[in-house]
């Protein structure tokens, strides 16, 4: 008869193999978790309900996200207040406003939305933020690992994100100001990972084919190198120019749109002739979003971003219009 402790080496070996498997599938550091979160948002099918809160404003939305090969389709519906629906497909976003019977179609570069908020590469992030693992928590019935993004200077806000321990998908995100106060939160309340059962759910539930519906188009076209008639004299640490576009609205408006990013936060700069717009300058804050406007060289410059006002003022005050 074998001694009673004979199976222990096998048990120990099994535990060793299991531990190694977990270690291989779990990112070892904060940067690894963020990289995994980006991949999850790009590749997974999911459906759920999430909340958005900023100051006194609260909003609940449902989302369905499905992959078709390398392309994604998404339907988001705001469940509180005035009905709104956002339909995303490759290169196009449709915002359906049923009360006014209006559809706004935006083509070209479109901004990301929750939970696809994290960048593909964390290398640029690490120049501006200290990344560190924080506590584990339970979000929407799922175990999660939280990661803190602590700003290295006053030109950006801090962030904290919670990522599903199994898939890496972003479950919750907080934007944190210089006083350590939360100014914006996205969080799943319900989430189901896996294929959307009925593809028809990705279509609008409103019949927008009747003549009383209006369609407004906004086109974003990349500008050719050297076509810009301005320059930015004040660099903001960590922020790089990532896009220069010409935005053409259906009503005839035409504005240059320059985007700066530190890999996480983004600043949009709109430049248009001051004769075609309200020339009132100054600052404004809507929730987490700051706005700074000024007139320079006959152009109205509007800067918008979820960043401290200091950042917008530094960029905007350094903008110089070249002689035409």
Q: How would you portray this structure in words?
A:
- It is a single chain.
- With 324 residues, the protein is mainly beta.
- The chain has 2 domains: 179 residues, Lipoprotein localisation LolA/LolB/LppX (outer membrane lipoprotein receptor (LolB), chain A); 99 residues, 2-Layer Sandwich (Phosphorylase Kinase, domain 1), CATH 3.30.200.100.
- 14% of the residues lie in helices and 48% in strands.
- The chain has 4 helices and 20 strands.
- The strands form 2 sheets. The protein has an 18-stranded mixed beta sheet. Strands 13-20 form a two-stranded antiparallel sheet.
- Strand 4 and strand 5 form a beta hairpin.
- The protein is globular and about 55 Å long.
- The N and C termini lie far apart (96 Å).
Ordered list of secondary-structure elements with their pairings:
Blueprint: H1 8-25, H2 30-43, E1 46-54, E2 57-68, E3 71-78, E4 84-89, E5 92-97, E6 102-107, H3 125-128, E7 129-139, E8 142-151, E9 158-164, E10 170-176, E11 182-193, E12 214-222, E13 230-232, E14 240-249, E15 254-261, E16 266-273, E17 282-286, E18 289-296, E19 299-305, H4 309-317, E20 319-321
């Amino acid at each position: 008869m074998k001694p009673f402790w004979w199976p222990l080496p096998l048990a120990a070996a099994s535990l060793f193999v299991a531990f190694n498997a977990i270690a291989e599938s779990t990112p070892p550091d904060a940067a690894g978790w963020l990289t995994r979160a980006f991949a999850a948002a790009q590749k997974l099918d999911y459906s759920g309900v999430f909340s958005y809160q900023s100051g006194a404003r609260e909003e609940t939305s449902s989302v369905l996200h499905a992959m078709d090969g390398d392309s994604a389709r998404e339907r988001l519906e705001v469940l509180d207040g005035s009905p709104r629906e956002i339909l995303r497909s490759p290169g196009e976003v449709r915002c359906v406003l049923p009360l006014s019977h209006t559809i706004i179609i935006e083509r070209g570069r479109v901004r990301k939305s929750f939970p696809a908020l994290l960048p593909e590469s964390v290398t640029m992030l690490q120049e501006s933020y200290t990344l560190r693992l924080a506590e584990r928590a339970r979000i929407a019935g799922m175990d999660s690992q939280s990661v803190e993004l602590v700003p290295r200077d006053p030109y950006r806000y801090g962030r904290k994100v919670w990522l599903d321990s199994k898939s890496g998908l972003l479950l919750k995100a907080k934007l944190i100001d210089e006083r350590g106060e939360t100014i914006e939160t996205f969080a799943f309340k319900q989430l189901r990972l896996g294929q959307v059962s009925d593809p028809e759910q990705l279509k609008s539930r409103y019949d927008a084919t009747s003549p009383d519906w209006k369609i407004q188009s906004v086109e974003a076209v990349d500008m050719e190198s050297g076509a810009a008639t301005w320059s930015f004299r004040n660099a903001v640490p960590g922020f790089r120019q990532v896009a220069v576009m010409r935005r053409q609205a259906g009503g005839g408006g035409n504005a240059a749109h320059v985007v700066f990013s530190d890999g996480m936060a983004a600043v949009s700069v709109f430049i248009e002739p001051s004769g075609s717009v309200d020339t009132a300058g100054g600052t404004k804050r809507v929730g987490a979003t700051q706005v700074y406007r000024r007139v320079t060289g006959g152009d109205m410059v509007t800067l918008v971003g979820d960043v401290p006002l200091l950042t917008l003022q530094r960029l905007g005050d350094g903008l110089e219009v070249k002689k035409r």
